[in-house]
Amino acid sequence: MCREALLRQNIGWYDFVQDRSFLSQISDLAVALYYCWLPTFVIVPAFLVVSALISTFQSRMAVQEQRAYAKSGNMAQEVLANIKTVRVFGGPNCSNSLQ
After folding, report:
1. Cα separation of 63 and 92, whole Å?
2. Rounded-to-integer distance, Cα 40 and Cα 26, Å
3. For the whole model, what pTM was predicted?
4. Could you report the per-residue pLDDT of 21-61, keeping only the tens digit for each?
5. What are the residue ranges spanned by the domains of the chain?
6. Where does residue 82 fall: left (phi above 0), alpha (psi -120 to 50 degrees), or beta otherwise?
7. How far from the centroid of its chain's Cα atoms is residue 12's Cα?
């Protein structure tokens, strides 16, 4: 009954209605289990495994990204401190070449 109502909708209706609440997703899973339970039991665990792998990969990449940003920030800070030191000890000749 609900499936027929969804199939009768004009295709443009789906462009404006985006109900992806938790209850809607659970009901979609229940409908999938009712109509085709075997592929659902294959697809859902595969989806969960792939999601876990992607999440693990993304968290590892985020850690590496933060380390790289920290390293580059330290390097930039050191360069700026050294430029100030060179300007102080280099005198007016050095400050003209930096501008």
Report:
1. 44
2. 13
3. 0.46
4. 666 767 777 887 788 777 777 888 888 899 999 999 999 99
5. 2-98
6. alpha
7. 29
